[in-house]
Every structure is written in structure tokens, then in C-alpha cells.
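User: Could you walk me through two proteins back to back? I'd like the raw sequence and the C-alpha cells for each, with a short line separating them so I can tell where one ends and the next begins.

Assistant: Of course. Protein one, sequence then structure:
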Amino acid sequence: MECKEVQKNIHSFIDGKLESKECLAFIEHIRKCPDCMEELSIEFLVITGLQRLDDAEAFDLQKELTEKIKSNEENALQRKKMSRIGF
């Protein structure tokens, strides 16, 4: 996956709407490309931060992004595995 495609898919990734193969390619790219990882971080912080402004609770958006990447990767791998077995 190239930078333009990754940047185009940032919102879909944040919303959890990427297919398994796309999600894994997206994650692989952002782990290797500091510019795209920075863009993802900024978008995630803005989108999630704005949604949370009304909450009085403290939150760690960088930690949440790290967890989201890990969770999306695990889900994509699981879906890919299930599709191989024929489910």
C-alpha cells in the first residue's frame, strides 16, 4: 500500500471499515512509514478528541490509538484465517 492510499483510508481504519487484507496492508505501511503514522495519529486525535470534549474524564488518545491498531490487526488476521477455512 502506498502513502496516498493509506491517507485515503485513514477514516475507514478509524471507523473499523477496512477489509482484512486492506487493514493488514494499512497497518504494515503505518508501522514502516513515520509520515503516515503521524497523519493517522493526528486524524485519530482530532476525531476522537472532539468526540470526547464533553466528557469530564481524562483519556490517553495515543494509548487508545495503539490499542486500536493492535485490535484491528488481530481482528483482520482472525477474519483472514476464517476465510481460509471456508467460513
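----
Protein two, same layout:
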Amino acid sequence: MLKRLIDYPASHHALAWVLLLLIMVMTVGPITLRPATWIGPNVERFSAFLLLGITFSLTYPKRLIFVAIIIIVSCGLFEYAQHFMQNRHADI
């Protein structure tokens, strides 16, 4: 099953962009949308972006620089957008 998913990276396009959208909603949206687990916010953020990076890497296997730029720029823009939200604080 995993080999089949890796052999067809085009099947990951929607999943990769939906994950990016979900991370954006949880980062920029109201604090109540952010899931809280016992592992803590730093590990949660790392895990979310790790999963996003893996998904984008499977989707665009020959464009890893593109993947890195998308993730880094997105992370920065999400933090910057928090400046405009009440009850949110941007912290890099």
C-alpha cells in the first residue's frame, strides 16, 4: 500500500494543500480551533510541519527546494498574520 502511494505522487496533491490550509486555520484562526494535546505546543507544531513536509515531498519529489520554500514562507506568513488577530500573539 505504501509503495503504491509513493509511486503515485499526484494522489497527494489535494492532501498536501488541505494540510497546509488546516495548519493555516489552526494557526491564524481563533485559539479555540487549535487542538491541545499532552505533548505540548512546540511538539505539536513540529509534528504538523513534519507531516506537511513529508506530504509535500511525496507530492513533489523532484521539487524539494520548492517544498522547502513553501513550508518556510507559509510558516512565516502564518506567524505574521497573527499580528492582526485578537487574542493571538505572533512569536517566532
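DSSP finds four helices and no strands in the chain.

Let me know if you want the two compared in more detail.
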